[in-house]
Structure formats: C-alpha cells, structure tokens
Amino acid sequence: MKIKDMFYKEIDRDIKGVIKVGQADDENVYQELEEYVVTTELESYMTRFFNAYGKSLEGKTDKMGVWISGFFGSGKSHFLKILSYILGNKRVYDENGDMLTASSFFTEGIKVGSAQLRERIQQIAEQSEDTDVILFNVDSKSESDSKMNKESIRDVFMKVFNDYLGYCGSIPFLAEFERKLDSDGVYGDFKEKFEEINGSSWEEAREDYYFIQDEIIQAVTELGIMSEKEANNWAENAQSTYSLSVEKFA
After folding, report:
1. pTM
2. CA-to-CA distance for 20 and 18, rounded, in angstroms?
3. Is 244 buried (19+), middle (13-18) or exposed (0-12) by CB count in 10 A?
4. Any idea what DSSP says for residue 108?
5. Is 182 buried (19+), middle (13-18) or exposed (0-12) by CB count in 10 A?
6. Helix (DSSP H) and strand (DSSP E) numbers for the chain
7. Which of 81, 175, 205, 237 is the most exposed place for a label (fewest CB within 10 A)?
8. Neighbour-count burial of 33, counting CB atoms closer than 10 A to its CB (0-12 exposed, 13-18 middle, 19+ buried)
C-alpha cells in the first residue's frame, strides 16, 4: 500500500493555502465547510459568538460588536467566513450535485461535539431568511488615501452597503439619488427611461456620472420626477451638498 492511499481524502486535491474574504465560489465554499475542523478551542469560541448573537434574536441589546483577534495565520479570516456561512445558512452543492446548507455541516455528524452549540446553530439557521450577511475586506474596498482619513471606515461601510443594495457604491451622492428614487417607487421607471435615452443600461453608465448628466436630467424631467430647473440644480450641487455622518449611516 502506498502512503497516499492511507488518507481518507485525496492528498493531491487543490487546497487554498490562504483563506481570503471574497473567495465565494461554490467549490471553495463547500471545501471550506466540509473540511473545517472544529477543535475544542474553536468550539468554545463558536459557543461564545453564537450565544452573544442569539441574544440579538431574543431581545434588544446594544452589545452588537464582536472583535476577533489572533496572530497572522492563526485562522481569523477562515473562522469569520465560517461564521458568515452559518449566519446566512449558505446553500452549497456537494460533489454529487446535492444541495446542502452551511448549518448542516455543524448540526449533523461529529464535527461539533456540544449538543448545546448544535442546537444554537440550528436556531440561528432557522432565522437566516431574515438575515443579510455582507462579508468584505476593508482594505480592498478602501480608497488609496484611506489611512490618512479618519472617516474611511464609515465611508467603506457606506460603499459596501450601497453596493449590496444595488446602488452606486463608488459615488455616494449618486447612491443617495438612487435611494430616493427607490423609496418613491420610480427607480425602475428611471432606469428604463435612461436606457431609452442613452442606449446603455443605468448600471453600465452611472460610473461616468459627469459625462451623462444631460441624460439624467432628461430622464427625470420626462418622467415628471423633477422639473428641468430642479434637475439642473441637483446635478450642479449634488456632490457639494452630500454629507454623511456616522449617525446618518447607522
């Protein structure tokens, strides 16, 4: 018998040497969930985290932040990704094409020894339909001068949140415009009218805001969302009048 035949899994399979936030294709996710080893220490951390998180489901709490610390390479990102998969009860497909939920990797079998933790994970998984999980790397979403800007964390959170909602994350005042149209129930009409005028979809063209102001003005004017004077005034002053505070973001 060869040594490689003594192992349960193929030892020449592709394994990601470094787990990164943002790698989210189904094959990677399945491998991360299936091969994640819950040690006794990790089980205690999971219990602490999910017990704290569970309190937010059972009542009101202002203790909403969790800090994960550890040395480089200690598994922080991997742990965080696993938590995010469970919180959203992410669905993945195994090698046979069968669909599995993230929680099932931890509530079934012997991966988690604590019955209390398995029960807590199952409880949280049942709430996942009402949970939005937004996983991102702050550095990769930051502007080049972010380390000099004390508001950079707030701005990154706003950018990622806008992106998640389908708004223009890179131009915050334009995202505010989209949010207003959406709340008024005319965002879909605006996008259709803009494409009719410009020839490109709104999502494709909006990054070039300064080159498409005339089309935006025409679209909102023809739809009766604004008068031409109001639209011109908005286009000229939208950037300078936009402001974002931590309270407003919250």
Report:
1. 0.77
2. 6
3. middle
4. S
5. middle
6. 13, 2
7. 237
8. buried
